[in-house]
Amino acid sequence: MNDASLLEVQNVRKSFRKPDGGELLVLDGVNLTLREGEIVGLLGRSGSGKSTLLRLIAGLARPASGSITYLGQVLHGPPPGIALVFQGFALFPWLTVLENVELGLEALGLPQEEVRRRAIAAIDMIGLDGFESAYPRELSGGMRQRVGFARALVVHPNILLMDEPFSALDVLTAETLRTDFLELWSEGRLPIKGVILVTHNIEEAVLMCDRVLVFATNPGRIISEIKIDLPHPRDRLDPLFRDLVERIYVELTAKPTSERAPARIERFAGAGISTILPRVSSNLLSGLIEAVAKPPYNGQADLPVIAAALNMEIDDLFPVAETLQMLRFAEVEGGDIKLTAEGKRFAEAGTDERKRLFAHHLLAYVALAAHIRRVLDERPSHRAPWSRFCDELEDHMSPEAAEQTLRAAISWGRYAEVYAYDDHTQTFSLENP
Amino acid sequence: MTHPVAPISAARKTPMLSYWDGIAVLLLVGVLVFFAQASRGLVLPLAELERHPVSLDPANLPEYAARTSLRMLAAILLSLLFTFTYATWAAKSRRAEVVLIPILDILQSVPILGFISVTVVFFMSLAPGLMLGAEFAAVFAIFTSQAWNMAFSFYQSLRTVPKELEEAARSFRLGAWMRFWRLEVPFAMPALIWNMMMSMSGGWFFVVASEAISVGDTTVTLPGIGSYIALAIGQRDLDAVGWAIGAMLVVILIYDQLLFRPLVAWADRFRFEQEAGGAPPRSWVLTTLRRSRLVARATAPFGAARRWSYRVASRPYNPSPKPTRLRLPAQWVDRLWHAAVIATAAFAFWKVAQFVLLDVTLAEIGTAFFYGLATMARVFVLIAIASAIWVPIGIWVGLRPNVSRIAQPIAQFMAAFPANLLFPFAVSAIVAFRLNPDIWLSPLMVLGTQWYILFNVIAGATTIPSELRDIGTNLRVRGWLWWRKIALPAVFPFYVTGAITASGGSWNASIVAEVASWGQDRLQAHGLGAYIAEATKAADFHRIVLGIAVMSAFVVVLNRAFWRPLYRRAERKFRLD
User: Fold this and answer.
1) Which chain B positions have a beta carbon within 8 Å of A61's beta carbon?
2) Phi-psi category of A89—alpha, beta or left, where left has phi over 0 and alpha has psi -120 to 50?
3) How confident is the model over B278-335, as pLDDT tens digits?
4) Span B537-568, pLDDT tens digits
5) How far apart are CA B195 and CA B146, in angstroms?
6) DSSP labels for A72-98?
7) How far is residue B474's CA from residue B483's CA, in Å, rounded to a whole number?
8) How far is the C-alpha of B349 from the C-alpha of A413, rounded, in Å?
9) pLDDT at B575
């Protein structure tokens, strides 16, 4: 073991039990080493298991197999010396800023004077002076997250884990907090030795991290590691910075390697019945087609560029782009999105023509939609209950994923007017009121 | 920010005592004197009761009121203790949960007389010949009308602690003890206090039954407002009934000002929603206590003790894994556990059946069941009537914040109003006009419980988003269409919650509402409540158990088969988010 390594994750696998007794794999074969003095970013889309990995490292959950070693010892439960910053702040609303910060120290069983002294010091460092007796509900989002940071830092952890700490904040506040954090970090004023940052914001990862691990979904796994050795403070407009952003986009949209091909084909090309469908509204689909069709892109766009132009993050953009790919309205590859001939036709068509085109593609390329339509056609009553399809989907996926998939199929089916659904009676039908 | 924040470390230089200290001291001394006064009688021998029986002299009322409110307080503290232990156990242990929650459901459906009749002898024997035993019995009776909904509320809260807070508590390695007091109790506090207020009303509603205990030959009349009311009714003394109402009003007001309003104002910071919605509740008592430095200094040791207890309870991190004991797989333990539970339940059922059938024929079980149907019909008809009246009024009130501020405390007082106090009027009227008691006694059943419908509908109406109301006005939706399309759907889930509480409460109230007396005039309706009340009076334990079992069965089956599905449907269909 490298003596400067703080944490080692070896071959970790995590799965959740499905109600029918099967297992749903969320993390597979994950390896990661955190060395002293570095910020490692875990980057991927929602569902890639990066937050799950963070919780395993925090000791909040246990891996199904593999091991997590912290300072040479295998983890069992939350260890002292690893602190978490949460996406939703997770402040105790009934405690003041000071009491929130003191909480972790009290849990350590420290004497009252030391608790107070260290809490005040942390509050000063993070820029919360004057807010000690405020309650979280009186504070803005940015101030709340500062409390989240102070609470984590006050216990002097070796490792700071951050779970999308800036994603609940507005753009300006997030930038201020990032800059403040990086300043404290590079000046060596933070009592921490290493940071793991979970994010789905590519620019944030490039801005903050020394290394970025890119995650893929189904099951969650690390597909590549990108070293970032730009000096701090980093400039978003620096061509080297843009190159790194572009490179990560390419990684995230890479065509599958041959060994992963079967899984990939099932998810996108054929969109078999076991495909988990994202909940993407038809408005977003037509919105993206239109945006790509228009000048200056004229049918082909660089994903980072269009993401910035539309003010979308990868979690918002990728599901839309991939749904378009699934429906054969666009091709996504190498960090680019390119409309197909049908995609261009869709962009130029009027409402009714669009619906006809969408219906045609939906039934041709989304097996679940075609399946629902076939079942309704075959039944004399032309009706079928929700459970008819939900049960079938749950054989292949978790109940939540099944619900999400069926909801997506309902939404697209309604837009295409290929079937109808009544939520009160929970039945599908061919009626069109 | 509205309040300027003083640096923590800098202590302000201020005079030794302030105006707030004066008020706080007066308040605290008053409370102490009250406790001393009211608890004086506890160790007196029971015979003292016969020498100084309850009298209708209004001069005695302050003392009676003090005693009654002390009993209430003792019962609410007991209920709190019960809540913290029972509900926590149920929420933390999956195996305990499968047993404890259904038991709670059944306990909730057992009428108060059922508890009194079965336990009074036991409590009297705890302190033979002393008032203390009878006091225990009375406090326990009040406890049984308060504890269950508090426990349910706490259990629900524990199950819904936000995941991120839970994770934060774990990652900062809060011990179980600290997590309970710092995370779980605070999170549950607003709902718990609301339920405590409801419980208090419930306690008042049964105040007569819990103080003037009469089970067969065991008759105890403890000095208190409840016994005063019982005596006033027995002697047809209308003036005394008036005095009792007045005394109750005063006590409830004092409770509201000194206990509940401060609690509500204090618990406001435990609300989980981060947005500051509306003006925070205020209480002059809480303000006084908070601003008084004497109080701050006197309570400081408690804070220190609390922090000390966290320190003591914190455990150092143990990096080695827990020793894996040789044990059966969890599934097997589950199966064994379920088998044990079923076996115990079957055994209990057999024992109960055996006990009941000793003295009761199968035909009588049929009669009890028939009485149950009669009471059920009453409950449903009355809930329907109460709904028709209170839903429109509740919506009207809820949409007018000024009116609802006034209406809430009034409704709360009405909910506490014991049915017995209306006996004089109900009985006189029924006798005078030769009415059918089977029909005309029934309204007494919903006397205390109809207010839950009103409370909830008001609460629901205040949550209708103003945008929804504006668009209604904008589209000129008026009259019946407005009720049908906007108001009624918006309050429906709230209404169902209120109706569930009202229906359950009405079953319990049937034991005081189906038998009414005023002096010598005694009226009785045919129903399960009257059946249990009669059996209690005769100390016929076989029939008491039968009556309670039938009533519990009715309530539980109705809840599972009717109310809960209705509630789920309402939740799904009319959710406003």
Assistant:
1) none
2) left
3) 566 777 777 777 777 777 777 777 777 777 777 777 766 665 655 555 556 777 887 8
4) 888 888 888 888 888 888 888 888 888 888 88
5) 9
6) TEE--SPPTTEEEE-TT----TTS-HH
7) 15
8) 54
9) 66
3-state SS, B204-249, equals HHCHHHHHEEEECCEEEECCCHHHHHHHHHHCCCHHHHHHHHHHHH
User: What whole-number distance in Å separates Cα of residue A105 and Cα of residue A34?
Assistant: 25
The closest CB to that of A78, out of B170, B304, B311, belongs to B170
> How far apart (Å, rounded) are the C-alpha atoms in residues A107 and B495?
43
Query: Cβ A136–B171 below 8 Å, yes or no?
Result: no
Q: How much is the pTM? A: 0.80
Separation in Å, CA of A107 to nearest CA in chain B: 5
Q: What is the pLDDT of residue A268?
A: 42
User: 3-class DSSP state for residue A62?
Assistant: coil
Question: How many degrees, rounded to 5, is the angle at CA A425 between CA A421 and CA A431?
Answer: 40
The answer to whether A120 contacts B8, with C-beta atoms less than 8 Å apart, is yes
Q: Is B443 helix (H, G, I), strand (E, B) or coil?
A: helix
Where does residue B106 fall: left (phi above 0), alpha (psi -120 to 50 degrees), or beta otherwise? alpha
Of A133-142, A158-167, B63-72, B518-527, the least confident? B518-527
Cross-chain residue pair A86–B167, CB shorter than 8 Å = yes
pLDDT tens digit sequence for A246-286: 888 888 877 554 433 343 333 444 457 777 888 888 899 99
Helices (H), B475-540: 479-482, 488-513, 528-537
> What letter does residue B269 receive in the DSSP assignment?
G
How far is the alpha carbon of B304 from chain A, nearest alpha carbon, in Å? 9
Distance from CA of A82 to the nearest CA of B (A): 8
- Which residues in A lie closer than 8 A to residue B492 (C-beta atoms)? none
Nearest to B182 among A92, A130, A131 (CB): A92
- Contact between chains at B310 and A107 (C-beta distance less than 8 A): yes
Secondary structure letter of residue A258 according to DSSP = G
Interface test mutation site (partner A, options B274, B572, B575, max chain A beta carbons within 10 A): B274
Q: Is the pLDDT of residue A197 over 90?
A: yes
Bridge partners of B96, per DSSP, are none
| Helix (H/G/I), strand (E/B), else coil: B1 | coil
Strand residue runs (E) in A252-324: 300-302
On average, the pLDDT of chain B sits at 81
Average pLDDT over residues B431-449: 83
Q: Residue B519: helix, strand or coil by DSSP?
A: coil
Tell me how far apart the alpha carbons of residues A242 and A199 are, in angstroms, rounded to a whole number.
18
| A219's tokens | 């099951």
Burial status of residue B356 (CB atoms within 10 A of its CB: 0-12, 13-18, 19 or more): buried
* Token pair for A424: 């009160």
Q: Is A270 on the interface with B (CB under 8 A)?
A: no
3-state helix, strand, coil in chain B (%, to 5): 75, 5, 20
Among B137, B149, B145, residue whose Cα is nearest residue B224: B137
Q: How confident is the model at residue A303 (pLDDT cuts 50, 70, 90)?
A: confident
Q: Does the beta carbon of A84 lie under 8 angstroms from any beta carbon of chain B?
A: yes
Q: Does A193 touch chain B (CB under 8 A)?
A: no
HSE, CB side, 13 Å, CA atoms: give it for residue B151.
28
* Residue to substitute from B171, B180, B275, interface A, most A β-carbons within 10 A: B171
The answer to whether residue A19 neighbours chain B at the CB level (below 8 Å) is no
The overall average pLDDT reported for chain A is 86
Chain B nearest CA to A73, separation (Å): 7
